[in-house]
Amino acid sequence: MRKLDQSELKELLLKCWMTHDGSWFYHCLQEFGIYTANRLNKAAIKTLAEIELPRITKALEIEIGGTPTPAILRQALKGAFSVVKGEFMDFDYYFPSENVMEWKVNKCFAYEGMKRLGISDGYECGLLYRVGAWIDILGVDYEIATPVQGCMMNEKGFCSNSIIFKF
């Protein structure tokens, strides 16, 4: 038996986790329809974020208590992405200024999965919702430059946007 190195293990665990996530969404969809599946997905994401962000920041020794600052926000988001982003998640994010985070998705694994299920028209992006939940936990007000109701890849053919933080 071959031993996996740390990056291989992380990638495998993330793929398994995302497969579980997609399977869970699919079965909610089959049982309850797209509206309820989206609502339940967002509720689960919010609950997950409330547990995972403090867990990740504690493990990485990132202090998130007190009044949020641009540096703390940036450090917490980078820390979270360092744990939950896999190589198969083909997106980039960056901070062009202290109060803006931008991202660009080259190929979205969630959108591709929803297309395979034939429901990309009704899917509401859980990935952006998760990042928003992290920001909410940090106590920072924000707005999304181009508001997203569903899935940008489906609606516009691309996914690229900015979050403006209000400190």
From TrEMBL:
<dbReference type="Pfam" id="PF19620">
    <property type="entry name" value="DUF6125"/>
</dbReference>
<protein>
    <recommendedName>
        <fullName>4-vinyl reductase 4VR domain-containing protein</fullName>
    </recommendedName>
</protein>
